[in-house]
Every structure is written in C-alpha cells, then in structure tokens.
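Follow-up to my earlier ticket, as requested here are the two runs.
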Amino acid sequence: MAEYRYLAKPDPEWVDFPNRLPPGTKVHGMSRDRDPIAPQAGLDIDELDVAARDAHPIRLRSYRKTPPPPRDTEPATATEPATARLPLFLYMHGGGYVTGGLETDDATCRAIAAKLRVHVLSVEYRLAPEHKFPTGFQDCYDVVRWVASEEGQDRLGVDLLKGFVLGGTSAGANFTSGISHYARDQGLTPKITGVVFLAGSYCHPDARPAKYLDRILSIDEVNDAPGLTRKSIDYFAAKYGAPPTDKRLSSLLFDSHAGIANKAYFSVCGWDPRRDESLLLEQLLRQEGLGTRLDVYPGLPHGFWTTCPDLPESKRWLEKLLQGLAWILDEA
C-alpha cells in the first residue's frame, strides 16, 4: 500500500532507540516470567488451568470486577443483579511465538477489567522452539472451545451471548485471526462476536497472494524500526516452524473472511513492517460486512505500548483500545 508509506516516518523520540526517549522512560523487555499475582482493589484476579488436547495444563489468568457484598434485596430500579454473568474478552499475548507470557500485558488486562463491564481471560500458551507450530495455536483454540462450552461458561461465570470477544497483540493477533476463521468454518457456538487485532500479522511474507503483492509492501520496506524488522520476523518464523501457506498462520489465504465476527477493532503501528497486513485485513473485513474501527499510530514501532507503557502516546493507545472494546461490547 504505497499510499501509506508516509506512516513509516519515524517519531523523533523513537529514532536511535532508546537514546531519545524522555529521561526516566522505562523500557520493558519481553520475558516468559510468571509472577505471583499482585492484588488490586476492585478486581478479582486469579488463575486456573484448562487441559489442552494432549492433557497439558494451560494456565489462564482471570480478571473481573469484585462484586459488591450481597444485600437482602435489590433496588427496585436495578435491571440485573451485580453478580450477573459478564461477556468475555479472551486475550493472547505477543512475543513472536517464542516469548511473552501472563505478565506481558497484565497491566492492560487489569485496565480493561476495571474500566469495562467484561471478564478478561489471558492465555499462557506454549512457546517455540520447545513447542513448535501448531502447539501454541492449538492451545489457544482449545481454550476458545472450552470457554464456549457449558462447563467453561459456568466455571467462569460468563455469558457469551452477551459478548464473546477474541483478541491479542502481534502473535496473539495472528492467533485471533486464524482461530476466528476456523471457529466460523467449524460452526463453533456460541459464535465469536468481536475480534481485536493489535499490531497483528496475517500472512507469512513468502505466502502473500499474488493479488495482494502491491498492497503488502511494508514487510519489505520497513527495516529500520526498533523491535521488529524483516530479519527478526524471519528469525521468529524459523523458531515457530509453521509452513508459510498453512492458513492457521496465514489467514489472508482464506477464500472468505465473512462471518468471523460482527465487529473488528484494529491498532496499527505506522513504523512497523506488519503495518500493511493490518490495513488490508481491515479493508477486507469491512467489505465482507463486518463493522470495523481502526486506530493508526504514525511513526511508532511495533507494539510500542508494551515496550514503553508510560509514554503519553501509549496511554492514548490504551484509551483508544478501551473505546474500541466498549464499541464491540455495545457500551460506547
């Protein structure tokens, strides 16, 4: 998409990263750490395990508002009790399929659960190279199928008819796209109602369909951004080991993108080799009749909000994400 090349003009603060960032800016690296849960007033945060298809226990971290203490009677004006079941936002972290974990976006998951009327569930899927493709994808899909089951909904206390939203960052957004397509084709019920794509990738560079070659240019052109370049993309792809043309990795290869959800929200980084895939997928979903919202961040690199969450632009990103999720959940 040549018309979007201007988005790759670097933000001056991010040139020569991290040397031009404001003094005192904290830079967060990726790790596989799982720390003890830090309590937060107003939130119930706990963890549970769900069995994968090979019986591996997949750890999930659950976030929801703490319900008020029970009262003998509800106010006559109340439309539903405070303990009513919530919609669900199932989140998958980024990290190139090889790193990241429950701590990577813990602060974001907390903010979503605190601000919106939604139960947030974060997935600790298995990572490459110890667990190559399709293990991470299958772990996430197994969680999706579990939460859609009567057992899963009852254990979590959610009502997916109120909202069943799937989302993630980078590799997690890639899982989101592949899973939502497969769930549609396999007739998963309840259906996924919303998808959230944060700095996502949707096609291996070597599997780009011929009809999109002039629309996916950033993967070849953006090679000077901090955090992600074509070299690092190829490195992660080799560790992950997915065949380029497997649709679970390259969901742009699906013949149709209709019906994967009702609404889709995108965060797109302008100075990101994966930029054009997100812009293309948003257009394709809109053409298929999905409601879409798109926030683009010119000059900013892949997943900047995870790297430097305290910067003003990262805080603006979080506010925009909350607005996008509220729109998907019909709270806007």
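Run two:
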Amino acid sequence: MTHDEAATAVDPAGVGVIAQLAFGSMAAQTMRAALRLRVVELIGDKEMGTADVAARASAAPRPMGRLLRAMAGLGLLQERAAGTFAVTPVGALLDSGRPGSLAAFAHMFTEPAMIRAWEHLDDSVRSGDTAFDRVFGTDFFDHLKQHPELSAKFNAAMSQATRRTAAVLPGAVDFGRFTTVMDVGGGDGTLLSAVLREYPALTGVVYDTEEGLAQAPETLRGYGLTDRCSLVAGDFFRPVPEGAPGADLHMMKSIVHDWPDEQVVTILSHCRAALPPGGRVLIVEPVLPEIVDPGTAGLTYLSDLNMLVNVGGRERTRAEFEEVCGRAGLTVTSVTPLPGAEPFSAVEAAVAE
C-alpha cells in the first residue's frame, strides 16, 4: 500500500475520536468559562440574545457570542434562532441553583489545582510518583487544608458526585442488619443521610477531619437527622477515638481509591479494630473488571489516572480489594454492583475467621 493509499484508508470515525480527545481539555475550559461567567444561570429558563447575555455577564458581545456558539456545539445550549440561545437539559446541570446541579463538581474538576498535575502524567507513569506533590510542594489534602475556599469547593463537589450513589445504595444493601453506621471520611453526610432516611431505626456517625465535616451540620439539619447522627472529627490513619459512638458497620465511599495499598491497609485495620462481633466494613467504589471492557469503561480509567497524578491512590479490581482487605484481617463476602450509580459497587467485608 502506498503512502497516499494508506492516507485514504484511515477510518474517518477514528480521526473523529482522536480529534475529540485532543480537544477535550478545550471543551473543559469552555465549560469552566461558562461557569465563571454564570452563563447558564443568566439565561435560565428563557431564550436570550447574545447582547443581553454579554451585558448581564459584563462581557464583550462578540466574544460572548463565540462562547455561546461553542456551548451550543457542546450540547450545553441550543441556538433557537441566529444569536438567540436557550439552555438544554444537560446545560441546566451547570446551574448551581437547580436541584441535582453538578456545578460544584464541574468547577472542581476544571480547577487548576486539580488539572495542573495532569501535565506531568508521563512523569508519574515513569516514576510511579504523585505529580501533584512536586508541582505544589505538598500533597493534595494538605493543599486543601491550606486553602479553605478550595476545600469548601471540594466538599461541595464530592457531595454532588455522591448523589446518584446515595439514591441507589440504600435499596441495594440491607442496612437493616445493623444498628449504627459510621461513614468514614463521610464529608458533609450526603451518603449517610440517604441511608438513615431509608432506615429509621438506624443511628449514624460521620467521621472525618474538621475540614471534611465543615458542611455536615447543614446537611444533617436539612434532613432533620441531627438527633440520629453525630459528627466525630478524627484521622482515619489513627485508631477511632475513644468515646466515639460504636458502630457495627463502617462505610466508606471514594476513600479507598485515594490511597496506595499500605495506607488503605492502615485505614481498614482501624475499622476492623473498632468493629464489634458480627460487624462489617462496606466499601463503595468502582470495581474494575479484570480485562478492560470498552463498552462499559466509562470514565473509571481516567479516574484511576487522576488518582495517580493527584493523590497517589488507584482504582482496584475485586482481586485487589480482596488483597488489601485480607492484609487488614478482613474477608470480602460480596460485591454488589449499583445500577443507576455505575461504575460503583458495594464491597462488603467481614472480620476474617
């Protein structure tokens, strides 16, 4: 085959995929600019012309028109007539005032603190080291601690990212077997609140750092759960503090994947030590298949790389969960996929015999 023949034999769909990937960061920054300019909130449920959007956003009309067209091309807006735009159902998710909003999530995952380390992904792949630490001179969670406003953004993003799981988990796992659930690293309490609302006989504990718990009182008040749920500040790398309410289920979502194996074993060992007889650990995380399935891979493998460059953790297969649990004296007893909250599963573990 000649060079010219090879060029004409290239699959156009493949070219489109590569182009889409190459422009991916530009699409993300388009969304970030739209968030910072509050474009979706300004348009709201109306149709609005470019000049009006620009005036309300204190922006230049012609560049705003270019941004609005790009947003329409990405499916966030629809151009109803020349220069007149309306928000699509997808775009509405960027309105921070709407139920089910993902605005905080989108803000956080386009935040420079989240994406700068990605520029050094190749270095992390070569060395296995976390790029974030080298770029910022500290680790990700200490960086959040030093920047309270960013920490609040992160907490809000994690709350929004947890909503789909919170809607599904109480129906997928029988929490009625337990009396008290401790959500380890439970943040603002979004997930635990969903469980407690579904199981009125349960009591709960949200266990996290002071920074992680900052928004939890508001969440619990909003759901009327302050009498059934306590907040305990602590460090899951240390034993559960004496005097903390005992729990026969230690639950953690999106915690294990933040850390390398040694630290995960430490966290799980502290959970195991605090469990009463018959207690369980419930890990809510994506569970990678043994072989990549392109049809269901979704964003999980990008999340895995995000763990590599930003925090030093990883996504894991069932075998890898079994390994870290085993090292902590726990035995995985079940893995329950969570339809509607893909790719998450509920990994339950008991104290090893």
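The only thing I checked on run two: The radius of gyration is 23 Å. Let me know what else you need.
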